[in-house]
Amino acid sequence: MDDIDFKKSMNNPYAIFEELTEIINSNLDFYGHLISKKSNLSLITKIVDLLKIKTRETMIAQLPDSEKKAEVILDFCFAGMLSVFQKWFMSESRPPLESVTETIGILSFSGINGLLNHPTS
Asked: What is the pTM of this model?
């Protein structure tokens, strides 16, 4: 994730989610185990916190005087993402990961209206 230019990605967020999909696909067993075990909560929290810090810095740089709003937005988005990935890994009938991450990306950056107005892939 260090290679992602979050400032540039704010205008085209799909790069973030494409990278996330590639990372997860590179070792599904490992990430499935990591995200599905309660004992790994501390590690998952650290990973999410690092992503939030990086995203928060970019968001605040682009939206001055929005620190409190950025915190709410990031907490909402990352909690939702984590929940969706946990459910995906625990599900027996999984939709394609690319489809899931695309939906998460649209919801995160465009909200529900963005998803409703987005042409289906």
From this structure: 0.66
